[in-house]
Each structure stands twice: as C-alpha cells, then as structure tokens.
Amino acid sequence: MLRGSVRKTSLLKSNSINFLRNTRTTMFMSTKASSDITGTSNNGSTPVEPPQVLFTVRDTARVVTLNRPQKLNALNTNMCSMMFNTLNEYSKSDMINLVILKSSNGKRSFCAGGDVATVASWNLAKDYNKSVEFFQHEYSLNFQLSTFNKPIVSIMDGITMGGGVGLSIHTPFRIATEYTKWAMPEMDIGFFPDVGVTFALPRIITICNNQSQMAAYLCLTGDVLNGEDAYTLGLASHYVTHENLVNLERRLGEVTEVDVFRQSDKYSDKQDRGDKMMNIINNSIKEYSYQLPDNYKFRYSDVQLDVIEKCFNITKVQNINDIIRNLESFEGSVDAKNFALEIKDRLSKKSFTSMDLVIRLLQDNSKDHIESSIRRDLYTAANMCHNNVDGLSEFSEATNHKLNLKNREPYPWKNNLKAILSTQVTSLTSPKPSIPISLLKNNVDVTWNNYPFHGKYQLPTESFIKNLISKKDFTKESLIQYFMNNNVFTKDKVGVRYILNNIIRRKCKPTEKASLLKWVD
C-alpha cells in the first residue's frame, strides 16, 4: 500500500486538508523575525554571510524569503534543507495561519531554478552523492509544499523558472506580476522538466490542454511566459501588480480566526473551518488583484493553439519523433504551417533523450498521484546524474557547456543520431538498486491524485467548461454570466470574461436551438 493512500482517499472525499489545529490566532504575537540574521556578529563588528533563506513573522503569517540574489535565488541543498525543516516546524504550530513564499530580490527574480551548474560540476568530477542529495532535498521540499497543511501564498515576482516553478506550482495561491518570467527551460541543458511539473501542468493549465497538449508544448519548447500569460494559463492563480505586493503581504498577515467567524456565525466542522480560511485568503488576494492591461493579448493565436492541440496530444504519440512528424505534416493555413515548422526546427536543436523523457513523464504522471510522480522525478534525476543508462544522458556535459563555460552555441547533442528505445526511457525513470534514494518524510502524511484547492482559485479550465455545458444548457452570454455572477470563486475575478471568450470562440459553436453552446473537440 502506498504511504498515505488511506488518508488520501478520505482527504479527496472532503476536498480539503484538516486546518483546524493550524488556524488558531495569537492576537499579540511579536512582528519581529524570530530568526532574522542581520549580517553582523553579536558585537556588530565582524560581518557574516547573510542567510540564503530568511524566516520572519508577520502577525499570524510566516514569511519565507529566498535570499541569494547574486545567483537569482538559484536553489542549493542548504536552501532546500532550511525550508524543509522550518516548514515541518510550521506545520505543527497552532499560531500560524498561512505561509508566504517570496524573494528578497525585488522584481528581478523569485527563483531562477536549481543550481544545476554546480550539480554538473559534481557529476563531471564523479561526486554523484552530492548531486543526488541536492535533488533529494529539492524534490522532498516540492512534495512537502504540495501537501502542506496550511495555506501557502507564492509570490512569483520576476524570473520563475525550473526550481522556482517547483516552489510555486504546487501551492494553492500563486501570484504573478507584470515582472513574472515563467519557464521550464531544461531541454536546453539536456535535463527534464522536473520538480513535479509533469504532474501539475496536465491538471491546472486552462487552455488547449484536454490531453495535456499545452503542458507538453511548454515543457518541450521552454517558452518564456510573462505574468499575464502565466495567469491566463492557470500557472498563476492571481495577478497582482508589483507595487501592490507590500500592502498585500500586510493584509495577509492580518488574516485571523475572527475573519472566519465574520464569514459565518458558525462552522460545522474542522474541514469547514479550513475551507473558510482558504476562501478568506483568496478574497484578500482578490482585493489587491489588478486588471490585465488594456492592450493585453494572449501570446498564442487561435491558429497557433490549433497546431499545439493537434500536434502535441500525449495520448497519440510515443516519442518526440511522432511530434516532429505531426509538425512536418500539419495541414492548415500558411500561418499555421509556418508556426508548425518553426516549432519543429526549435525542437530539432534540443536533446531527443530529454524530450522522450518529457513525453513519458507526462503520460505517467498525469495519471499518478503526487508522491509517486515526484518520486519518479527523483529516480530520473539520479539516473541522469550517474548517466547509467547506455550513456544516453548528456545533462552534465550540456550544462557545463552552457552555464559553466558560457558557450553561446547550442550543445552538439551526440545521442540525437541514435534511436532511443522505449525500454531505455523506462530505465531512466525507474529506481536502481545501486542508487538507494527516497523522499524525505514530512509531517503531513498524505498524497492525492488532484490538487484539492487549485481549481477553486484559478481561472476555469477548458475541461471544466466542457463538463459544465455537457450537463446543462448554456448560451454564450449565460455561460459568461454564470462565471462572472453566480460562481462564488470566479465572481469579480480578473480575466474571467477574457478566457471564456477565448475558449468559447475556439471550442464551442451554437446549436440551432436557441443558440445553445455545443462543445467541439
């Protein structure tokens, strides 16, 4: 039996975490940081290196601040270990209502990823244990964040890539700003989109993703998205301008048990109380949310979305060569064909080993539960560090080429000329007796197949809308009114009309009967 599988069943039935013991408020808590290190010794004379992660108190909230600005907050083993251990302590406290995860680097970066340049150097020196230890700590932190028993608000202000996506994607509240730069760029260094994103993206992306097409496209191409597009696609749950973040953080620190009582005269049980706390946090963020710019236009046109939808369906391909053939043979307008060939040319310059891994991981992790998915990422990362499957991984050499040696030319992939077998991909994603490794145990012993809160607080997905109109008759306007006026979670939410117009235009057509909408696959 899987660890936490029994708890998982009961958790999914209630669709929430037991927050009761975690939402009691201490009304007179000090706002001074309990572990704030100033950068000087006790006598104020000898400078010391500032901590790479800061842990501070803001009333009933705890603020975790990444503080490695010179490396754009790239994660190392120490940072992941500090956060994991501190979050374990937070999970046991009755005095904490929520956790805020942010950066000290202003609008420049939230987190640029894991420090893979150092990992590559360790691998080339055959110091594999250090590399595997890093990934063990990073992925254990990702799993901890995904099942944490308190609300977490991640502020993705600035560069949010790779490991930075892993810190935010699993949390129910993910804030994008006008400075957000979101991407999973691992294909360029021969790695793979790790940190649980092949579990997350099939479930949360709003547009062009009924068969994980947009998830596959973003993982394979490494496209960089701005904050508005990240929000529209569901990668962020809210859109807040940079200048509003200070006031938002202050407001979140003020969220107390009193707010729960104000929302209702009484609550029925522990789960109800926890849900109300989540809703209060959501509404608090909405207070500071900002309308998308007047001139905002979604990055991908309808023509491009059609190409992505038809060429990147992971249920109909076995490997990257199938996708490349789809792109080469795509039939459509001139613009559509040009886009398909442009993407095909971009993919041909990336690691075929890594791209085959992406497809397999999306296929497996889109059906699996979160713990098993992140564990699979851990096995894959360890195998790529050791390069123990027929020498297929060029991760260390390509990373050294690009990040350590600063070569501007793409790495010359040696294995792209080889036929990669399905059994080799399976071996890369499987545990090896020679590398005994597991996720570190956290204090919340649960796992699940779907996030219990993500769908409530982000923009609606195509699959949700498809399911809705299959059960009830809607016209275009009545569907929009349902989400904008009747649905408590999307009412007054930024961008609702915009995304509905996009989805209805592409995926629905009116029937002859009273212009009712019919879904078109």
Automatic annotation (TrEMBL):
One Pfam match: ECH_2
Record bears the keyword Hydrolase: yes
EC annotation from Swiss-Prot or TrEMBL: 3.1.2.4
Gene Ontology biological process terms from the UniProt entry: L-valine catabolic process
GO annotation, cellular component aspect: mitochondrion
Gene3D superfamilies in alphabetical order: 2-enoyl-CoA Hydratase, Chain A, domain 1
Key words, A-Z: Hydrolase, Isomerase
Coiled-coil region list: none
SUPFAM superfamilies the UniProt entry points to: ClpP/crotonase
Domain of life: Eukaryota
Catalytic activity: 3-hydroxy-2-methylpropanoyl-CoA + H2O = 3-hydroxy-2-methylpropanoate + CoA + H(+)
A molecular function GO annotation: isomerase activity
Domain annotation Enoyl-CoA hydratase/isomerase: ranges: 62-418
The keyword Isomerase appears for this protein: yes
PANTHER family: 3-HYDROXYISOBUTYRYL-COA HYDROLASE, MITOCHONDRIAL, 3-HYDROXYISOBUTYRYL-COA HYDROLASE-RELATED
Name this polypeptide is given: 3-hydroxyisobutyryl-CoA hydrolase
Native source organism of the sequence: Maudiozyma barnettii
